[in-house]
Write a structure and sequence with these properties.
By secondary structure, the protein is an all-alpha fold. It has helices at 30-45, 52-68, 75-100, 108-126, 130-155, 159-178, 191-194, 203-230, 238-260, 267-285, 287-296, 299-304, 309-335, 345-357, 370-389, 393-423; strands spanning 184-185, 199-200, 265-266, 337-338. The protein has a domain at 58-64 and 71-201 and 263-409: ABC transporter involved in vitamin B12 uptake, BtuC (Orthogonal Bundle), CATH 1.10.3470.
Length: 424
């Protein structure tokens, strides 16, 4: 029996004649189209809607705002948008890790603000070099995340309570470090400021990077196809690989072209995409990443399968704390100062909303770090469009809340559908 390249045995595989038709007279591609339809229906029954609804929502959002203001999709506004998403997006990637195990981290906003305050206090008030201050700020985030994870996984305090207490405690420590002025300004030409102010405009570099990423994806896809084929596992068809590669090439080269018409590729965006790709590979290609995903399906089942549940839970909160601290540095970089704005409640709300809107399940076990990118693009696009239209922030919050509750409803319905199918 032939193995279907999209994930299950191919109906009628090997039945095509030399003339390109099946023996029963059907076109050669009929079986593959039917098999693809079966695979799609199976994914829908399992509650896996994929990125299609999010991409559709993003396209509709962009189309609406462009129709209302023709500056929305201008190179300048898209360039600003590509940098604005990074701080919140970094925090959202950490939230994805926590949501995958079915938990929540309410302290990430405060941790982001504390990270900026620690950096600014050490660099400006103490005179420490920026590199060392950055490292200490990120380590602080990791250590605090480990403390949260320890209290949750080892002591048994609910994650909601632990991180809620952290939200209050780290906000207070942030205000203490900032002092009576409630803000500390640092150099506009230093390392942290450069994170969101440096752009690469040389066409040879930017287009070469787009070509390198596209070629890398193609090579990795073929390598994965060969490895899965050799192991007798389902694998993607060659045509599907080329279609995906072509779509990636269109997105990559269009992005380079559009952003190049303003100032070029932002360093912040490149770092953000690097974090997403690395964390996605970590979750999908490493045994430890698969342990995180399995834990979201049920702690007891994961424990019986040999997963060290306590260690995984602590490490996940460490990842969340580290990325929250990193995101806080990018937020501070936009203002070239550390202030309570960097750790405001809106950062926490937007980070969680981005992860959920992007497709990560609140119930654990399903999601991807790409959810953070898609979700934060929708949220920041709404904010950018509202700003161009002169709409007040209150309306922006209401619209973002509506998008969030819609995403949660779809997530709940998908989960209920999947559970009902398993009971049948």
């Amino acid at each position: 029996m032939a193995v279907k390249e999209s994930g299950s045995p191919e109906p009628g595989a090997g039945a095509a004649s030399k003339g390109g038709r099946h023996r029963d007279g059907r076109p050669w591609y009929a079986g593959r189209l039917k098999g693809s339809g079966v695979a799609v229906r199976r994914r829908l029954r399992e509650g896996d809607l994929g990125p299609a609804p999010v991409l559709l929502a993003l396209a509709v959002t962009w189309a609406v705002f462009q129709s209302l203001n023709d500056h929305f999709l201008s190179p300048r506004n898209l360039s600003v948008l590509s940098v604005d998403i990074v701080g919140t997006g970094m925090v959202a990637v950490g939230i994805v890790f926590v949501l995958l195990i079915g938990e929540i981290d309410l302290s990430v906003g405060s941790l982001a603000g504390l990270s900026g305050a620690v950096f600014a206090a050490l660099n400006v008030n103490v005179g420490m070099t920026e590199w060392l201050a950055v490292i200490i700020a990120v380590i602080c985030g990791a250590v605090i995340g480990a403390v949260h994870g320890f209290l949750f996984a080892r002591i048994g305090v609910p994650a909601f309570v632990v991180t809620l207490a952290g939200l209050l405690a780290w906000s207070g420590l942030m205000l203490y470090l900032l002092g009576p002025d409630s803000s500390i300004h640092f150099s506009e030409d230093g390392l942290v400021a450069t994170l969101t102010s440096r752009y690469y405009s040389a066409p040879g570099f930017t287009y070469g990077l787009a070509a390198l990423c596209t070629a890398g994806y193609l090579l990795v896809s073929y390598r994965d196809r060969g490895r899965r084929s050799g192991a007798g596992m389902p694998y993607r068809r060659t045509g599907e690989i080329w279609v995906r590669t072509a779509l990636l090439a269109v997105v990559a080269f269009t992005t380079v072209h559009v952003l190049g018409r303003f100032e070029g590729l932002p360093l912040a965006l490149l770092i953000f995409l690097g974090v997403i790709v690395t964390s996605d590979l970590f979750l999908r290609r490493t045994p430890y990443g698969r342990q995180i995903l399995s834990l979201g399906g049920g702690a007891e089942a994961a424990r019986r399968a040999g997963v060290d549940v306590t260690r995984v839970r602590i490490s996940v909160f460490m990842v969340s704390g580290t990325l929250a601290a990193t995101g806080g540095l990018f937020v501070a970089s936009r203002f070239t100062s550390a202030s309570p704005v960097s750790g405001s409640g809106s950062l926490l709300i937007n980070a969680i909303a981005a992860a959920v809107i992007g497709g990560t399940s609140l119930f654990g076990g399903r999601g991807s770090t790409w959810s953070a990118l898609l979700g934060v693009l929708i949220i920041q696009s709404i904010a950018s469009g509202m700003a161009l239209l002169g709409v007040e922030t209150a309306v922006q919050f209401m619209i973002t809340g509506g998008v969030l509750i819609t995403a949660v409803i779809f997530d709940s319905l998908a989960r209920r559908t999947a559970e009902s199918r398993r009971r049948v």
